[in-house]
Amino acid sequence: MDALKAIETRKSVRGYTEKKVEQDKLETLAKAGTRAPKFGNFHISVITSPELLKEIDEKALANMRAMGGFAKQRADLEGYHALYGAPALFLISGPESPYSGVNAACAAANITVAATALDLASCYVGSAAVAFKDNPPLAKKAGLPEGFSPLCGVLVGYAGEDKFSQAPAFSVTVGYIQ
Questions:
Q1: What is the dihedral sign for C-alpha 138, 140, 146, 152?
Q2: How far from chain centre, in Å, is Cα 178?
């Protein structure tokens, strides 16, 4: 699939099968993330350990409930899981810098488009980063470098039943200035 077709057909998937993502595809996605436009350092942790994914999911849910508002509403939905049962999480972290969030978003975008090109489902998520709030032991388990904080994540796997795609519609506009 060419890049423009992958961009056009990419969508956020919020439900996955248990099928593991092949190692060569994980490596291709990680490489795509490292090739993103960047202005500074960032780190990608590729997490496939079912035990660690479960721990991240549980911590994210607890922290989402504590946050209140939309995050609590989502976390309180029957059957909701912050990681939607994905078998792989690309957790993107960076040092404290005004550019870290931008770097992470660019890496995540590359990963989501590459996943689409590889016939994989993906979802850009903030909930994965929420799991690490005030939790240095979890950050260590996830392989975050010293001084780096999680910024976002990309869930990757094979599409399954998607019960939670009723996300709010966001308005995106384009203006051409000549």
A1: negative
A2: 36
